[in-house]
Amino acid sequence: MPNMGLILQACAGLILFFFLAWIFSENRKQVNFKAAFAGLAIQILLAVIVTKFPVVRTGFLWIGDGVMALKDATVAGTSFVFGYLGGGETPYVAKEGVNSFIFAFQALPMVIVISAVAMLLFHWRILPLIVKVFSGVFQKVLGIGGALGVCAAAKIFLGQTEAPLLVRPYLGKFTRSELFTVMTAGMATTSISIMVIYAMILEGTIPDPIAHILTASIISVPAAITISRILIPQVGEDTSGHLVVPYQFSGSMEAITQGTSDGMRLYINILAMLIVFLALVALANAILGIFPGVSSEPMSLQLLLGYILAPFAWFLGIPWDEAVAAGALLGKKTILNELIAFVGLAALPKGVLSIKSSLIMTYALAGFANLSSIGIQIGGIGTMVPERKQEIISLGIKALIAGTIASCMSGAIIGILYDIG
Prior knowledge:
Layout: H1 4-23, H2 33-52, H3 54-82, H4 103-106, H5 110-123, H6 126-142, H7 146-154, H8 168-171, H9 176-188, H10 192-201, H11 209-231, H12 252-288, H13 301-314, H14 320-335, H15 338-347, H16 355-365, H17 371-384, H18 389-420
Helix pairs in contact: 1-11, 1-18, 2-3, 2-11, 2-18, 3-11, 5-10, 5-12, 6-7, 9-11, 9-18, 10-11, 11-16, 11-18, 13-14, 14-15, 14-16, 15-16, 16-18, 17-18
């Protein structure tokens, strides 16, 4: 039987998210509620299609199988380069119960492989074709301009600075609302290179993690458009435009080389980021440890954030006895980043979060909405349109909030669909 209490919680959460966006809107009188509810309907419809239709689910499972094939192929490379550290045969007998998995050498190198494959698919015009299909759907259904439609569709697969490159010639002409939507979509979603890492982290935590993370990236786009247009309503004409291919390669080998170089920079960046942020969390916990704990649990950053954001997690449809742990994950994502939050989700002891709550949190965490992303967008998008850099800076915090709301809406909807069965 569906848990009506949790379903009503999540429904109340969706209403709350809309209300908060409207309260903080720059122009409440200009909010197009018809378009806003249409956007919510599209998000729910996409979630239903992706999660409930067997044919679509099978397709996503095939994607999962493809990712596993890429994982095995990556191990072939890492085991040759790093030997047993990269997943090759160990020259010793490992102790029972000892974890010999080394994230830096066995999981993270997939970023480099995926980046190379994605660039190859771009060169072969496969990825641009997929982007055009999604762009057409978003334009017709959500009533947005062609240029914004391309950027929103590309954000399902590309990063928050790579996707705007596809419409770079039009960025200077974007209205304030359209520019804000670009930033919000960047915060609310992830990229195909990083989502594979999330999936590897979450193996054993939720079933078919890559299918869920890809679904999260798809259904969070209409939510990002909807929430951003409530916070900053569109005034004037939508910007028309089409996809502009930013990469010109002489052949497949050059595309692979470029993708490999880009992936290597991302690999180093993630590696350094994980070391520094995990160290900062440990340092913060050591400082907080001097203060009295709660219920025999020592004071920590996770505990503090958990209690602060527990009500927010409750509105996603998570039971109150699990809300503190879920709130801590939301806090980690916002202050640090989603990668740290996913590591925290996977590390939770069994029973702290149910399968359903873990699923909700997967969707709520699957986005770039964190403080460091504000700097990334200022540096990336601000460089593309330097004349609007100050405007981008002023919209940073608001885009973070809007992106967080969009991702959380996806989590709430998935929780409702899970309970309905």
